[in-house]
Amino acid sequence: MERVAFLIEPGGERIGCLLNPETLVMRRVAGLHPRRALGGSLPWGGPGDDPLLFTGGGRTELTLDLLFDVSLSGSTLQTEDVRDLTEPLWRLAENGLREDGAMRPSLARMVWGKRGNYLGVVAAVAERLEDFTSTGAPRRSWLRMRLLRVEDEVAPREPVVEQEPPDPEAVAAALSPEDYEAHTVLGAGEDAGAPSGQRLDELAYQRYGDPSLWRLIAALNGVADPNNLPAGQVLRLPTPEALRRVR
């Protein structure tokens, strides 16, 4: 199995580990807090649980226990002091990047195996040093790291290209008489699945899902005032399938 590694963002620096974590604990904390009163005490007493204030969101924490030992093979850094191997992980908890006038730590993406891919901020690092040399240099380290997951930035969406309105003359030339259906304009108070006092934009939305197609309906039927259709007028409307075919 591929060993766990940390990819630093921005920059792309890779910090590898000699061994995979001894343990990995994932913890999810919901977005809520106990409700407090300005005076310090709640206005009601007696047994029971504190009322909760729901704030939304929450946080996901990952706690890893990593082992480093200078006697293990595989390290590209030859040293007698294990702290030379763990120092890059300590730096991840330092506020080294400036953003919006404030300092913040780098983002670290933990990559482990096929499904382990977590982007987070190193919130805490603790280290237990063992196996000291005669000069006082530790050769082994048990390092515990706590990460707070952050959301990956959403890639910018591609601009939506609005579809050009269909040319009434081109639509009329492309359609055959079988591609039309008759529709009788409703009068005020009539109920046939459309608002009373029908307008062409309402009819276009009801039939095609696009109110801007009222211009096409007006042009195909010679309607001068789309907001004042006489009740009982019969309109020739392209079927939705035919209109999709020629657009």
UniProtKB/TrEMBL annotation:
Pfam families: CIS_tube (PF19266). Residues 13-150 form the Contractile injection system tube protein N-terminal domain. This is Contractile injection system tube protein N-terminal domain-containing protein. It comes from Pyxidicoccus fallax.
